[in-house]
Amino acid sequence: MSSRVLRKLQGDTGLRVDSDPEKDAEDDLLSVAAGGGAKKKQLNVNRYDLLNQQSLSESEVKEDDDNETEPTQDQDGADPADKGAKRKKKKKKKKAVKAALAQRSSEDNFDGDEIDQVNRLLGPVASAESVQHAAEVQRTKELLSIDNRNLNPNNELKRIFGVKIVQSEQRKKSRTRTHLRNTGIVTPKDTWPIIGKQGITMRYCEQKGQVQVFSYEHNSDYQLVQRIFLQAVESLNPDNVVAVIHSHPYHVDALLQVAELCKMSEDLQMAADLVERALYALEHAFHPLFNLAQGNCRLDYCRQENRALFIALFKHLTMVGQRACHRTALELSKVVLSLDPDDDPLAMVLVIDLYALRSRQYSWLVRLADEWEASRNLSQLPNFAYSTAVARFHLAVQGAIEMADADASLQLALIMFPGVLSPLLEKCSVQVDHKVLAHDFFGPKAQTSMPPALAQLVQLYVARCWPVWKEAELLPWLERNTHAVLARVDSKDPLVSECDGHRRRRYQGAPPKNITRHIVLADLKEVPPAISPGDSTGPVMSFDPLPPADSINLYERPRRPRTATVDNAGALSLFFRSLLPTYNANEPPGAEGAAAGPVDDAQFDIEFEHEGGGLEVRRNLASLMDMLRDLLRNIQLPDAPDARADADVDSSGDDELGNET
Q1: How far, in Å, CA of 511 to CA of 168, rounded?
Q2: CA distance 306 to 346
Q3: What Å distances lie between residue 37 and 3, 5, 30, 44, 173, CA to CA?
Q4: Contact 184, 173 (CB under 8 A)
Q5: β-bridge mates for residue 552, sequence order
Q6: Between vectors from CA 43 to CA 37 and to CA 46, what angle results, nearest 5°?
Q7: Given phi > 0 = left and psi -120 to 50 = alpha, else beta, which region is 193?
Q8: Interior angle at CA 488, CA 418 and CA 422, nearest 5
């Protein structure tokens, strides 16, 4: 029995004012000895509760206080004044304990219903795939984020030529400009008309995680002008397209189409001006939340109205790069890639490495190649394989990495794409070593054994990037690693056969449509586009080349009206028809068309441009067409229905055959 219980039985109040602690301790020991000495002094609280002393609830503290005050309330014979003092002291103690544990007691009262409510607000726990996708989106945003100051080529021209020269030139051109506001990409010219409301707007569609999706929209007036423009294009008369620009100076597709005509006539300044005006009209319609610098704004290329921004930016960055503004071209390439990085409809990965090297952004290029390798296999593209090796070489010269890393990267590129070496050295006017040229790995066999799709990418890389290899310090490095690769080939390195298998598997069949679209827009004479029958069903237009198969079309291309038959044609019409190479006077009407088979307008234009036609032939043809235009304005050459029908049958048969292969 404890000492407190003994005192209670003996009538002790326990309210001694001048109590001696030592005497109390002795009394406790004596009472324990009188009780047998087998039990220790018991505490007022459960000793296991000491483990949870810092998390006691308010109810437990209240119960403990009640247990402590019960002996004092049941005791008799005590002094009333002492009882009142003790009671006040206990009340103060209760208030202090309640104030100290108010916050903790609120946590104890947080029940399961409130937890469920919070879970409903936060939503379900994200899966591993969604977390990985969000991390990839964040990395893409960091890689493709830009500074708006780098989008203006004038800022780069100031760094190249000096501020005074560029500003003096700008003052001469901007003295009368009072009605056009500057935008982030294009600096408007004083010769441009007032833009007003051209009928294009941008709509905010949705939020997908960290990505914001937008879309362009055309109002009814702009749709009417667009249909007039499509009819003008189908008429094959450039004057009709120019008339659309005269009546609607900021019609985007008409500006892009006429810019291509100016480029073909080598009026590059006018072509650049028209592209900038089209881009200015598109930028003027940006949504307030559409920020190109953030790298998280998306446009769906499948929507017909959105493609104009992709194509205008591509043409603009190409012309900016030709003016030696490589950093601006790199930032614009990031913008185009950020609009749809998953599908990359214009295959910007085929050109962004060039502008990164020319602008000396070596670390960024290596980071892009490393972070996108797992998801995009950038090392399987010849341009990225060689460009990242060059970037690592420059970083090694700067001391950022070891030269052995650059050597390994270049040797891997040479083993993976040996067909690049010979045309690259030939383009650089470098005499190829006889030992290298005589070896089967780098010799003519490497050129003939390449798949057609890979050969096209090799031609594209050599035509664009050969000036990069003209640096004096790169050629000895290339020669040293070429001999190292030959030694590995002769020693039967298993990496050689492994890369050969990857190369053959990856480049089977025709190239993807986005690569063909990129080559069409690049318009390099050394790289003619190989358009398969399934990629295009008609002429390839520069304002919308090779639309995607799942295109969401607001406009349909109008069909050309059928003309009169040959039987009803006049003598003058028959005379002009006799000028055609397939005309035969002994055959019935329409037989020459059937014998000729289907003619692809796009393929005909490409073959004419790249098979030795030359600039002089095109100029003569243009002059001839100008002279004949007035004569033939009111004369419509009839087209034989039988020939067209036979051509349609042959065309459908060819398409089916192409699909089977």
Answers
A1: 48
A2: 13
A3: 12, 15, 9, 19, 109
A4: no
A5: 303
A6: 120
A7: beta
A8: 25
- φ, ψ of residue 531 to 5 degrees: the values are -90, 115
pLDDT tens-digit readout, 153-192: 888 888 877 766 666 655 555 554 445 666 778 888 888 9
DSSP string, 352-370: HHHHHHHTT-HHHHHHHHH
The Cα–Cα gap between 598 and 600 comes to: 7
Task: Determine how many CB atoms are found less than 10 A away from the CB of residue 30.
Answer: 12
Which residue type sits at 448?
T
> What is the residue type of 411?
Q
Query: Do 288 and 203 contact (CB within 8 A), yes or no?
Result: no
557 or 13, greater pLDDT: 557
The Cα-based distances of 213 to 138, 204, 208, 548 in angstroms read 16, 6, 7, 19
The closest of 172, 171, 175, 177 to 190, measured between CA atoms, is 177
Query: Do the Cβ atoms of 255 and 278 come closer than 8 Å?
Result: yes
Place of tokens 């397939």: 582
The closest alpha carbon to 530, from 507, 562, 496, 558, belongs to: 507
pLDDT tens-digit readout, 503-558: 989 998 889 999 999 999 999 999 998 887 777 667 788 899 999 989 999 888 77
| pTM of this prediction exceeds 0.85 | no
Residues 533, 658 contacting (CB under 8 angstroms): yes
Cα dihedral 633, 636, 637, 639, rounded to 10, equals 150
User: What token pair was written down for 498?
Assistant: 């492994």
Contact 281, 195 (CB under 8 A): yes
